[in-house]
Amino acid sequence: MTRIDIQLKPYLEQIGVTAYTLGKWVVGVSPQTIYAIANGSRRPSLEVLEAILEAFHNNGFETSLNDLLVIRSE
Predict the structure, then answer these.
(1) Which CATH number belongs to the domain containing residue 41 in this structure?
(2) Which domain holds residue 46?
(3) How many distinct structural domains can be found in the chain?
(4) Concatenated DSSP letters for 34-74?
(5) Is 29 within 8 Å of 51 (Cβ atoms)?
(6) Model confidence over 24-68: pLDDT tens digits?
(7) How far is CA 74 from CA 4, 5, 34, in A?
């Protein structure tokens, strides 16, 4: 079985950005949703992942899906 995990919180810590700040950057997604994704209590849709990546790019970060996802084989 393959599992895809979202590693948003560790990535945010690595680059020195808070979930609160990211929540302000992401257009069309509530800050509460970003916070829930960062804390692992919610999984994002592909559309939300796209919005998160766009927000990073618009704020000078060259973030890719590889930075946010971990694929595990179980």
Answers:
(1) 1.10.260.40
(2) 2-73
(3) 1
(4) HHHHHTTSSPPPHHHHHHHHHHHHHTT----HHHHEEEEE-
(5) yes
(6) 999 999 999 999 999 999 999 999 999 999 999 999 999 999 999
(7) 11, 12, 27
Measured from the Cβ of residue 53, the count of other Cβ atoms closer than 10 Å reads: 17
C-alpha distances in Å from residue 18, one per residue of 1, 38, 39: 32, 9, 11
pTM of the model: 0.92
Q: Tokens for 21? A: 């700040």
User: Which residues, other chains included, contact 17 with Cβ-Cβ below 8 Å and sequence gap of 6+?
Assistant: 61
For residue 33, which of 58, 63, 65, 8 has the smallest C-alpha distance?
8
